[in-house]
Write a structure and sequence with these properties.
Layout (H helix, E strand, L loop, with lengths): L10 E11 L2 E11 L6 E8 L9 E6 L2 H5 L7 H14 L2 E7 L3 H4 L2 H11 L5 H7 L10 H9 L4 E5 L3 H9 L3 E6 L10 H11 L4
Helix pairs in contact: 4-5
The chain binds zinc ion.
Length: 206
Amino acid sequence: MASIADAPALEVVETALPITVDGREQMFRAFAFQGAKEEEQLLVLVHGDASAGQALPLVRLHSGCVTGDIFHSMRCDCYEQLQASLKAVLESSHGAIVYMPYHEGRGIGLFKKMRAYALQERGVDTVDANTAIGAPVDARDFGLAAKALAYLGLNEIRLLCNNPAKVEALAGFGITIAERISVASKPNRHNERYLNTKRDRMGHQI
Ligand SMILES: [Zn+2]
């Protein structure tokens, strides 16, 4: 089993980061982490602290998605999930959003994700499209995320997540998931098939 000790080395920098959520200004503490590989960089936005309440911290591990997070693409539900998670974390006494840009396209990168999209346009589903271009269905590694959580004292958490495999991966790195809380998103005519595939072929509990 992998452990936090096997995860990449860690460099950290911290700053305040004001952002807007639903048009309102919200202040987070932002921590950037650099892993062993140049592309392994992640951002953690922390809200509140452990002294603020009784509940375990509420955490979202979010895989970067240029098309969804930035352009609000309707081919996936990333933007909706990120916004719902930000709101849930802000409503909690203590929580964090862990954002992993290098998890783009479930870890295969933007270009291959777009190649897979092009195949999906011809009727191939998200799992088979990855296989067809020789990319793994899921290439994400959660070692750096687990190490960042441990660094921030977030060793026991409630996780905003629809993907049981993610829960297992984190647990494998020594993070205790006391509760998994689903993040709802509304299907639209562009992503209905994608969401169904995530549910039927990837074990997502949507
Ligand atoms: Zn997306």
